[in-house]
Amino acid sequence: MVDSTHATDMPAPSRAPYEVSDIDPRRIIYVGAGLLVTILAVMTLTYVIYGYVTGRYIGRQPSASSLAHTRAPTPEPHLSVNAPEELRQLRATENATLNSYAWVDKENGTVRIPIERAIEILAKKGLPTRSEQGEATTRAGTTKVTKRTR
Fold first, then answer.
1. What does the pLDDT look like over 112-150, one tens digit per residue?
2. Is residue 50 packed enough to be buried (19+ CB in 10 Å), middle (13-18) or exposed (0-12)?
3. Domain carrying residue 136
4. Is 116 in contact with 132 (CB distance < 8 Å)?
5. Predicted structure pTM score
6. How many Å from the N-terminal Cα to the C-terminal Cα in the chain?
7. What's the number of domains the chain is made of?
């Protein structure tokens, strides 16, 4: 009892260049066109709403003062016009400071000495160290440095 009618149940072959059981191409075109129209409508609506809201915002702003048009000075740091020359000037100023004697605070007796001289003095005397009592002494132990009180 085998049914051998499967050959006669088959539909006749179609002449369509695509699978007939697929989605209808007209439906794809209609959905795409509908999506495009929807996107354009939303874009237009957004543009109109933005223009309306911007107009209301600008209308609520107070009028600008006549002083608002004065140019404020540019804050620091300024743009370098000639960076190499400015660097040379900076280095010359720093070298002059490092290699000259000057008063830092004349009332308290604080002076600035050239860096080479300061290195020589430190090499000769040594750096001060603290003992347990809080007194500062040099490595040789002969010089005591105490705090000044006013």
1. 999 899 999 999 988 878 777 655 555 544 444 444 444
2. exposed
3. 100-145
4. no
5. 0.34
6. 125
7. 2
